[in-house]
Amino acid sequence: MSNDGSKGQAQEVEQASSRDEEDFMTAEMKKRCRKIYLKVDFRMIPILGAIYAISGIDRTNLSAARVAGMHEDLRFDIGERYSIVLLVFFITYFIFEIPSNVILRKVGAARWLSFIALSWGVVILGAGFVKSWAPMIAIRLLLGLFEAGFFPGCMYLISCWYQRYQVQQRIAWFYSLNVIANGFGSLLAYGLIRMEGLGGLRGWRWIFIIEGLITCVLAIMGYFLIIDFPDKLAGFKRPFLSLEDVEIIKARLNRDRSDAEHDLFSIKKVFQTLCRWQLWIYSLLFMCTAVGIYGYAYFTVVILQGMGYSTGRVFLLSAPPAIVSVPVSLIVSYVADKTRLRAPFIAFMAIMCLVGYVLVTYAKQNGVKYFGIFLGIAGANGALPAILAWQANNIRGQSTRAVASGLQVAFGAVGGVYASLTFMEKEAPTYFTGLWAGIAAMLFMVVACAFMSVFHYVQNKRAARGEILIEGLEGFRYTY
């Protein structure tokens, strides 16, 4: 089919859907669009999700290695060494989020995302051979440097392919792969620990070596499978979509928010984006849910160990809460996209996580504490896709998305620092301060959701009266 023909089809889709979503699209047009999005779903989400999943394991495998003997071998039992090694990761992770998104756009998604994944895979592999705790600081700094760009890059890429009320489900599927992998990651770690003595190496060293190798293999696969932005047709070396398919995608994006084409980066645009106070609220929300995610990821095994369980049972018990959080996240994301709401679901997930913290902190029976871990992990993981989607729904422009997603995910690093510092070694295994710090973060999320919802309501009313133009686009409205 000619380019003119494909553009004509795309214009038909855009004009039809512009009247009222998909109500006036023909059955044939709807079927064609569903097929196109299924192609994108199956090509993009699994490989990005798989690499991010192994990055989550790579980032949090310190807790498994600690239980398996690293704590004594590298003398993490002295002072706050363990918390320091956890903390330094987030320094480079925070700094390089936004610069990485700028590079991503220039270099190309497949090249950049696969390169940084391969780099951190090599770094993780090297962690299996350290002889003292000090080199682990350098390893964690490098790990933060290379991992910094992957998650915001994925969010930037996904948000550029899907319409506003399609995106949360895709983020949830992407992130759920990470949650599942982390759940089974504890079982993988337990299996690798059983390699104790093989090749003259401790079991905890095999955790880093094998997981580093897995990361390298996935990174190489990513180079061939990751797709580029819709407007960068040159990026499709082996096209899985026709030119007509891509034009339809772009037409729907333009109908949804008029930003299918990339607008060039400039220092002025970066600073203008960073001066938008709403983005800092979205970022603080992401920080708060990251407090819950990192807190449970780093310290669940230690809390379970403090309940008196054996090492093997600790690893087995740490998997189910993560696995159960997946259907919770997927169901919430489906309903949120259908209802086109974000804030109520974020607040509900925050309250769920808060209740989990309270049970872990104050319950006397191990069974009740363990149920609290289920609630806490489900609440934190369920809120994350909604928070990312809420920001993506309320901004326009690809350069704005690149900076905003980098800023938002960078605040996840702040949440990691917050969790690392408040879960103090001297309070193990109760971690009373860390758990109450998590409760405070969840309370902030509820208040912030209420505040932003009121602000969005007022602005939408003003736009309806013609007093303001939201995001510079006639008819654009904020999502609550």
Automatic annotation (TrEMBL):
Ranges for region Disordered:
1-22
Per the UniProt record, one Pfam family is MFS_1
Q: Which domain of life is it from?
A: Eukaryota
Q: Where is the composition biased (Polar residues)?
A: 1-16
The cellular component terms of Gene Ontology attached to this UniProt record, alphabetical and capped at eight, are: membrane
Query: Which Gene3D superfamilies would you find in this protein's record?
Result: MFS general substrate transporter like domains
Name the residues that span the membrane. Answer: 40-57, 82-100, 112-130, 136-159, 171-193, 205-227, 279-303, 315-336, 343-364, 370-390, 402-423, 435-458
Where do the Major facilitator superfamily (MFS) profile domain residues begin and end?
44-462
Identify the main location: membrane
PANTHER family to which the protein is assigned, alphabetical: MAJOR FACILITATOR SUPERFAMILY (MFS) PROFILE DOMAIN-CONTAINING PROTEIN, PERMEASE-RELATED
Identify this protein by name: Major facilitator superfamily (MFS) profile domain-containing protein
Q: Which organism is this protein's natural source?
A: Helicocarpus griseus UAMH5409
